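Continuing the series of single-chain predictions for the mutant panel. This is the parent chain; the variants come on the following pages.
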Amino acid sequence: MARSNNSFRSRSSKSPARPVAAPAAVSPEALPRAGVGLRLITLVYDGLLLIALTAVLNTILIAFITPGAASDSSTLTVLSPAVRHGLIFPATVLVIFAFYGYCWTRSGQTLGMQTWRLEIRRDDGRLMGWGDSLLRCAAASVVPVFCGLASWLVRGDATAFGISVGVGFFFNYAWRWLPLNQAMQGRCLHDLMSHTNVVRLPPKPKQRKAYRFLGLFGDRED
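Parent structure:
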């Protein structure tokens, strides 16, 4: 009996373990492009987070530049246009770029994109670098800035300026439905200008976990 056990152990030790096949990677070309609706929803998600980040940044900056006498007496101090346009606005733009650049270069996904399984890649399928992120942010800003400046030169009204910037922002996405864009496979304008793609990832397979009531009863864990 002992001899048979020894022979069984020797055979089992010699038999190689079967390698587990890794899941095949899905190429970016095989993934569907994300719809405009989902992309706008992710912008709302990320926008809420950016509002909180910029609010904290602006609070810190205002605390440093507010005169000490005004802060001690709790008086309301109106920031000068030089401070608003020369410090607060550039700092806000820098925070927004740092947020998107970090997320895009790290995993290709922001927090909102992770929720809706969206991912941004270059045309060659690789992750974006900081230069690619800068190019994409600049490409997304070209039309809104142009519309805003044109409206300001014509009307000189802050309300018209804001509306024009919003129109230019949505024009980037409306480009996808223009007839002349059919050859570009329905990509948005800033996608084409930055040589990037926003795709939707397939859902991950859900693994059923063993159920254990109070850690004592339920499915048996292997």
